[in-house]
Design goal:
There is one protein chain. The chain has about 200 residues and is α/β, with parallel strands linked by helices. The chain has a single domain (about 5-199), classed as 3-Layer(aba) Sandwich (Glutaredoxin). The chain has helices spanning about 5-10, 15-20, 85-95, 115-125, 145-150, 155, 190-199, and strands at about 25, 50, 60, 70-75, 100-105, 130-135, 170-175, 180-185. A hairpin with a 5-residue loop joins strand 7 and strand 8 (about 180-185).
């Protein structure tokens, strides 16, 4: 096959397909591209943000001050959906010091089509989820939620530009509201890279 044809094929592959080849990707300020200057402090505070829960209540992120925060985009019909059980068990074990915040998203192959009521029922019935779940949002694109805008815009969070490439990507925020890590879909609480980051 000619090189030009191979290049044309590769360029036609959607980014989310390519991302599936690296489901265990981890990013942190120290792994950022050395060719570009890394910011050391966020221009906007994560604690200034708010989001609506599945029940329609508005929650301010400042209520999580002093705890580590894990933000993940979820879906009910994904191969990674069983991670709900992993993150619920992790939350139950560590909830005095760590919170898990779930944001349903329907942007990846339409794998979260349900209403807020559907999502809540699914999470409770199948996985007994007790960590905080929020209303369905866009995690990328023109309608990107303010939470994910902060998480993916270096001018706001200080360094990171990684946008979720699929369902169940994770962001780790420390006790002072500083974004410290991005983890791709395949990373779970049992993954060595996550354990190292959380210590």
């Amino acid at each position: 096959m000619r090189p030009k044809i191979i290049i044309a094929i590769l360029l036609s592959i959607p980014a989310w397909v390519l991302s599936c080849f690296n489901p265990n990707k981890v990013s942190s300020p120290t792994s950022a591209n050395e060719a570009s200057p890394r910011l050391t402090s966020a221009a906007t505070s994560f604690y200034s943000l708010k989001a609506k829960t599945l029940d329609g209540q508005t929650i301010s992120m400042d209520q999580y001050k002093g705890k580590k925060i894990i933000v993940l985009n979820t879906a009910s019909r994904c191969g990674y959906t069983p991670q709900y059980a992993d993150w619920e068990a992790f939350y139950e074990k560590n909830k005095d010091n760590i919170v898990v915040l779930g944001f349903p998203c329907n942007q990846f192959m339409g794998q979260e089509p349900g209403t807020a009521t559907d999502i809540q029922a699914f999470c409770q019935k199948n996985y007994g989820v007790t960590f905080q779940m929020f209303e369905k949002v866009d995690v990328k694109g023109s309608e990107q939620s303010p939470i994910y805008k902060w998480l993916t815009d270096p001018s706001q969070n200080g360094w990171n530009s990684d946008v979720p490439s699929w369902n169940f990507c994770k962001y780790l925020i420390d006790e002072n509201g500083k974004l410290t890590h991005f983890f791709a879909s395949g990373v779970t609480p049992a993954s060595a890279e996550f354990k190292k980051a959380i210590d």
